[in-house]
């Protein structure tokens, strides 16, 4: 599904990614881990075309995407969440999900506004579909709350729901469990698995090792921009280079 081939990204003198290669197969949950500054978010920013790589290529379902603008990558079926949650705080929960649906249907902005204002016959359909997404993520009781009023855990669920509502083939989750308590983290890992089982391939950046080891089939480890290991959760837990990188030795 996704092929990262020898990607290097430089910001001036900083090498954020250094000839990194890996693949994500259809239907997998793949983990991208590494200490702070390892280059994980930069990799996500290149896959979603927010940044272009300095060298190397990114292929999604057989198409080179590394030179496309971001607005052309999303409709191909790639969606993401952000380490710093990016929901529309002044909109309600259900409106945020409707924005995600709008991205999928690719209607224009005025079309979206008229949907939100309720002047279109499809409004009810879109609304019902949005409600079914909220139910999937356990947010249905909060549908009319302003996003600004939500707890961190619910905000992370809302961003996840909005990304899912674009009906992606590949979903990039950047630290989706950051700041969540133990119970919320467990629920999040079950949700990620449920989303994968619904047919979405998932690449996760996550610091919570229990979550990563529980849900990922394959794990890629970055350290200071370089890939230092790749393997199953068991292989990664036993890998000397990974242990050294995490201990900071
Ligand atoms: P991670 O997500 O693994 O913590 P990042 O990808 O955010 O790491 O950062 C990797 C390196 O690239 C860091 O040294 C960071 O400061 C640098 N970096 C990331 N984005 C930018 C940017 N837009 N401009 C300059 N340096 C950046
Ligand atoms: Mg990051």
From TrEMBL:
Annotated Gene3D superfamilies: P-loop containing nucleotide triphosphate hydrolases
A molecular function (GO) term: L-isoleucine transmembrane transporter activity
UniProt keywords, alphabetically: ATP-binding, Nucleotide-binding, Transport
Domain ABC transporter: 2-249
GO cellular component: plasma membrane
Superkingdom as given in the UniProt entry: Bacteria
Pfam families: ABC_tran (PF00005), BCA_ABC_TP_C (PF12399)
One GO biological process term: L-alanine transport
Protein name as annotated: ABC transporter ATP-binding protein
Species of provenance: Paenisporosarcina antarctica
